[in-house]
Design a protein that fits this description.
Radius of gyration: 27 Å
Strand order of the largest sheet: 8-11-14-17-20-25-28-31-34-37-39-40
Distance between the termini: 86 Å
CATH architecture of the largest domain: 3 Solenoid
Largest sheet: 12 strands, mixed
Helix content: 10-25%
Shape: flat
CATH topology of the largest domain: UDP N-Acetylglucosamine Acyltransferase, domain 1
Structural class: alpha/beta
Number of helices: 4
Number of domains: 2
Length: 340
């Protein structure tokens, strides 16, 4: 798919310096630009590359004036970084602009869907599923019975959505994610054998949620596991049964949240964090990477470590921990002096 400088400038409300008919069909970093590519210059650190890049078109700030000869056509805009981001979003929309039902695929009895559905080949849509408009479901995806999927949501290839799940509008769920699998519920009998506790709840995902590849969100034992609007979950995260995650919270990869924990809104949780069950994480909490959280955290706190401590307390303690061998040596020396 090709775009001219004139088309791009029109989309970005920019001004062209160079050839308005210059065509591009790929995106590139400025230092890796080649003929037919589009790039941008926003960071002054990369200024030297504007004079050597082979990119056909470069988006720059309006204030930019070249001091040497350049070969690339310029599109001048108010903010090069924001404009390039806008262009990436547009490019992604065009790239994903698919519709129609590919075969083989299965739409079970009672399933309904809105306008502009894309259903890739080898998909299975269960009974009484309700799919909104402009939904894209990529190949090899499973959607169980009685699932609801809102408008403008994307399920990438290989997603598994178990029965009774509710997914809101504008959500993106990446390949390999599993939504609504059984929670980890077992109870030992008198002989120490673990018997399964039926998990009969569901998962509710509100609007504008992103869920990364190979992330698992378990269904509730009773009631619902709830991912509230605007939440962003990275790849390879485990969200256990009956967890609630508040609005606009962001969680990095390899984090695990145990059952029935409530996480507030606008939290930032780093990678490889472990959070025990049945606690409450307040609003606006920051949890540093690899922390182990074993108790509730009030609003606005920043914690680190395992078990997690207050961020400043952890850093103070870590200074002493690094010096621990010397501290032990000093103590031993003092003990010897006392003996004398």
């Amino acid at each position: 798919m090709k775009f001219t400088a004139e088309q791009i400038a029109g989309l970005l409300e920019g001004d062209i310096v160079g050839n308005p008919n210059a065509e591009v069909f790929r995106l590139a970093k400025i230092e890796e630009g080649t003929d037919g590519s589009l790039t941008f210059l926003a960071n002054p650190k990369y200024l030297p590359y504007i004079y050597s890049t082979q990119a056909t078109i470069t988006i720059v700030n309006r204030t930019f004036e070249p001091e040497n000869d350049i070969t690339t056509t310029l599109i001048k805009v108010d903010d090069a970084y924001q404009s390039f981001s806008k262009l990436l979003e547009y490019y992604n929309q065009v790239k994903l602009m698919k519709s129609g039902i590919e075969q083989p695929s299965v739409l079970s009895e009672g399933a309904t869907y809105g306008d502009n559905l894309y259903l890739g080949s080898f998909c299975y849509i269960g009974k009484n599923v309700k799919i909104g408009s402009n939904v894209k479901i990529y190949p090899n995806t499973f959607v169980g019975d009685n699932v609801v999927i809102g408008d403008d949501t994307i399920l990438f290839a290989g997603v598994r959505v178990y029965s009774e799940t509710v997914i809101g509008k504008g959500c993106t769920i990446h390949s390999g994610a599993i939504i609504g699998s059984d929670g980890f519920g077992f109870a030992p009998n008198d002989e120490g054998v673990y018997n399964k506790i039926p998990q009969i709840g569901n998962v509710i995902i509100e609007d504008n949620v992103d869920i990364g590849s190979c992330t698992t969100v378990d269904r509730a034992t009773l009631g619902s596991t709830v991912i509230k609007k605007g939440v962003k979950l990275d790849n390879q995260i485990q969200i256990a049964h009956n967890v609630t995650i508040g609005e606009n919270t962001v969680i990095a990869s390899q984090t695990g949240v145990a059952g029935s924990t409530k996480i507030g809104r606008n939290c930032i949780i780093g990678g490889q964090v472990g959070i025990v069950g049945h606690i409450t994480i307040g609003n606006g909490v920051r949890i540093q990477a690899q922390s182990g959280v074993g108790k509730s955290i009030p609003d606005g706190e920043t914690v680190q470590g395992s078990p997690a401590l207050g961020y400043s307390d952890f850093n103070k303690s870590y200074v002493h921990f690094r010096n621990f061998p010397k501290i032990v040596s000093d103590i031993e020396e003092l003990k010897q002096q006392n003996k004398q």
